[in-house]
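Appendix B. Raw example, untouched.
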Amino acid sequence: MTRIVPTAVARRLPSLSRDRKVEILGVAGAGKSTLATLLDRDAGVEMATFIHARRPSHLVQIVRGIPRLLPILISGLTRSPRIDWREFKLLVYVTRWRLFLGRPASPGAVLLFDQGPLYALVRLKAEGKPFTTYRAFGRWSEEMLGSWVSELTTLVFLDAPDPVLWSRINQRPQDHKAKGEEAKAGLRFIARYRRTFEDVIRRVEELGGPQILRFDTSVASATQIADKVKPLLEDRHGR
């Protein structure tokens, strides 16, 4: 049975602290990018930049991440299906992003992550490649989760009923791994990712932070959610 979280639109949400880093999470079709676009239009909000392999300055971060990732890379290259370039980049994002980002370009701004570090962890786990079952990956994952729990201020988790998500995946113009699949396969994909998100969020709660705001996007529109979250992002001095 699908677990749908209640909408938080009607709640009074707590203020955020300074040096805020906010990540938007959610299963495919939940509306992450739409919400991020709405929030990014406001002054004082900056989208967190990616580490791009095509930029020479960013290649330094990739090279520096290899020693920490070497045990995972070895296990990922010795078992089939092997780790691929996309997965390697996700490992680098999670490992090096915090050091790469530093503080926002504008003092007091909020750094907003769409497909951020926790999303990358979920994606690696949900795909279930053999390298994610080895001890080296488990140790790395727990270490990275602990470091990001202390770094992120707020998680905004979006969800919707399975039929809504499946319809959105198939109707949107962007390509997606599950798009065009049979409904049963698509619903299994959604369930697998939701289960993995919930596992990671539960671990975040066990580690003591950050605050988690949940929204059902079949009940609350992206505009409604953005309107509820925006005042918190504008409250730079914690008033």
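End of appendix B.
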